[in-house]
Amino acid sequence: MEFLVLILIVGFVTAGLSIRFDRFFTILLLLFVFKLTIFNAINLFLWVILFGALMIILDNADKISKLPKAMKMKLFTFIPIMTFIFSWLGSYVFMLSSKTVLIVTLGIIAILYGLRLVFIHFAPDELDLTNASPTIVKLCGIFGPIISGFFIGFIGTSLKPLKIPFAIKFGKMNAKQVYLGNTITTFFAAFFTIIWHFVMSKGAITGAIFYQQMILGAALWTGIHYTFELTNIFFKNSWRKPFQIIIGLTLLLVSIKVFMMI
């Protein structure tokens, strides 16, 4: 029952928000529905975003292969190196952090994500921009993998809901390019973080637990994905903005429940 509740809610919500892989809501439902600890919820969620990011990369394999060599070098050399280093740093902080620190951080992120959904919306012409600011492009290119690597290691989310509006609204960057870059960043950061958390757990994550988390993570991602696909067929574009505001307000309310876990 808990499994069905989670995949139906997350699949439906992310279909309305057009979110395909960084499904932050999963962590919250793992806490409130599955009744997992914050540590286990984050470790399980890492598998969900890993599989989601991998799917998008495979779906865009042809497009990626046609990118300029310099861009591919950055995507598959610079990003892996940066996420390798900073996911380790974030994972180290995760292992040192108490339940209270993680819960407070999660609550703050829920508030920020909620505010973003309520107040920041994209006009159709903003999703196909080509006049990017060179300064913002460089900042995002350098600090994007650093920020995502650290925060995925620390709290399991890449901060995509905050990074992408910054890149598009302030940097006038192309939404598809930003999304693809963040997807590849998330894939490598999640992959390395899963390894770091296993290595740093000092035996708390046994081989059996690791395997169980992988299988459950794959099952959750599959259920969420197909709920997303089925729901998305019937979701009208005119519904998306009000739906986004409703979900944003809901996240603000849920953040109160998160803080009550302290």
UniProtKB/TrEMBL annotation:
Source organism superkingdom: Bacteria
Keywords, comma-separated and alphabetical: Membrane, Transmembrane, Transmembrane helix
Listed transmembrane segments: 28-54, 75-95, 101-123, 135-159, 179-199, 208-228, 243-260
The name this protein goes by in its record: Membrane transporter protein
Organism this protein belongs to: Haliovirga abyssi
Organism ancestry: Bacteria, Fusobacteriati, Fusobacteriota, Fusobacteriia, Fusobacteriales
